Amino acid sequence: MTGENRTDAILRPIKERPSWRYYALLAVAIVGLIWFLQAWVFQLRNGMIVADIGDWGVGGGIPWGLYVGSFIWWVGIAHGGIIISAAVRLFGLDTYKPIARMAELLTLVALSVAALYILVHMGRPDRVVTSILPNLPTTIQSSPLAWDVTVITLYFVLTATYLGLTIREDLYAIRNRLPKVFSPIYSVMLVGYRPEEQPKIDRMAWWLALAVIILAPLFLHGGVIPWLFALLPGNPIWFGAAQGPQFLTIALSSALGSVIVMAYIFRRAYDWEHVIPDSVFAGLARWLALFAMLFLWLQIQKIVTGLSMAPAAIATGTEATAREPLYWAAIILIHVAVGYFALQMLFPSLFSVGRTVIAAALPVVATLLEKFIFVLEGLMYPVFRLHGGVPGSYAPTWVEISSVIGAFSIVLLFFLLVSRVIPLVEVEVHES
C-alpha cells in the first residue's frame, strides 16, 4: 500500500458517511450510558445501601466491592495502555506503531472511567470538594488513597500531553483533507504549532515516553496503586511486597488484550488489513503470553505460600480464595490463552488473527474477575474482628452491575465519537 493510499485508509472513518452498524453501536452505547445514569441516580437518592456495601460492624458488611475492583481494573488498563505506546516510541518498535495512538486514547478514557468509579463509590460526589481536595495537601504525606488520586491525575496529564504532542504534526499535515465542520476543534489543537519545531516536539515526546516507562513500574501500577492495599496489615491477603509485580502483570495483560481486540474491531470495520497487518497481532500476542505467564506464576506463588503453613489469618483468606469458583475461572481463562499462544508460536501455521483476538480477550475478562475476588476476599477476612469473628458477606447488586455496563458504554461511545474526528493511526506525514 502506498503512503497516499494508506493515509486515505486511515482517514476513512473521518471522511466516509457512517454505516448503519455505526449508528447501531452508537445507540447501544447511549442506551447503556442512560441505564447506568439512572442506576446512579437511584443510588444517590437511596444511599449506598442499594450497593450492598457499608462499614465493618456487627452487620458483617464490607466497605468495598465491585466498584473498587472495577476501578483497579480500569486503572490497570490505562497504565498498561500508555506503557505500550511509550515503549513503541522509546524503543523504536515501528511494527506496533499502528496501535500506539489507540493505546493512548484507551489510556485517557480508562483513566476517566476509573475516576468516575471513585465518584460513584463515594456515595456523594460533593465530597470531592468538601473532603478530598481540602485535605489533599496534608494527607498526601501519609495516605495511600491520597497518593492514588495524585498519581492518577499525574498519569492523565502525562497521557494527554503525550497525545497532544504526537497528534499535532498529523493534523497540520492533513488539515486540508479533514471535515470542515470540525475546523474549530483542529484550530484549537494546532494553536501555536509550527512545523519547524517538530524535532523539538519529538524530543519532548521521547522524554515523556521515558518518564512513563520509569514511573509505571516504580510509582504507578507497580507502586502506588498496589501500596493502597499492600500497606494494610489488617488485611493479610493484601499485605506484602508482592502486590506491585502482581498488579503490573495484570495491568499489562489486560491492556495488551484490550488493544488487540480494539485494533481488530477497527481493522474489520474499515478494511485496515494493510494499515494494521497480521504481524502486529502476532507480536502483541507474544508479549501478552509473556505477561500472562508472569501473572500465573505470581498467582501460584500466592496460593502455594498462603496454603502451606502460613499464619492463620493468611491461610484463612487464601483458603477462601481457593474455594471461589470465579477465581479459578479467571485462572483457567489465562491458562487457555497462554496455551493457545504457545501452540501458535511453536506451530506458526496455527496462527489466525481471529483466534488470536479471541484468545486475547480471555485475559481481559480474567483480570476483571481476579481483581473483583482480590478486593472481596481481602475485606471478608481481616485480622481485626469488629463483627465478632464472622466473615463479611457481599454480592453485587443490579446497581453495581449497571456501573460495569455504563463503563463499557462510555468507552464505546468515546471511540465511536473520537474516530470521527481524529485519525486513530499515525499517518506518514512525509507522504500525506
Describe this structure in words.
With 432 residues, the protein is an all-alpha fold. It has a single domain (3-431), classed as Formate dehydrogenase/DMSO reductase fold. The protein has helices at residues 3-10, 12-15, 20-46, 66-90, 100-121, 127-139, 144-174, 183-189, 198-218, 220-230, 243-269, 278-307, 312-322, 325-346, 353-380, 398-418. α4 crosses α9. The longest helix has 31 residues, at 144-174. The radius of gyration is 22 Å and the shape is globular. The chain starts with a helix and ends in a 14-residue tail after the last helix.
Helices and strands in order, then pairings?
Elements: H1 3-10, H2 12-15, H3 20-46, H4 66-90, H5 100-121, H6 127-139, H7 144-174, H8 183-189, H9 198-218, H10 220-230, H11 243-269, H12 278-307, H13 312-322, H14 325-346, H15 353-380, H16 398-418
Helix pairs in contact: 3-16, 4-5, 4-9, 4-11, 4-15, 5-7, 5-16, 7-9, 7-10, 9-10, 10-11, 11-12, 11-15, 12-13, 12-14, 12-15, 13-15, 14-15
Task: Determine the CATH superfamily.
Answer: Formate dehydrogenase/DMSO reductase domain
Q: How many domains make up the 3D coordinates?
A: 1
Stated plainly, the CATH topology is called: Formate dehydrogenase/DMSO reductase fold
The CATH architecture can be named as Up-down Bundle
> Order of SSEs, N→C?
HHHHHHHHHHHHHHHH
The main β sheet shows up as:
none
Strand content: under 5%
In terms of quaternary structure, what is this? single chain
The CATH class: Mainly Alpha
Number of strands: 0
Class by alpha and beta content? mainly alpha
Q: What's the tally of helices?
A: 16
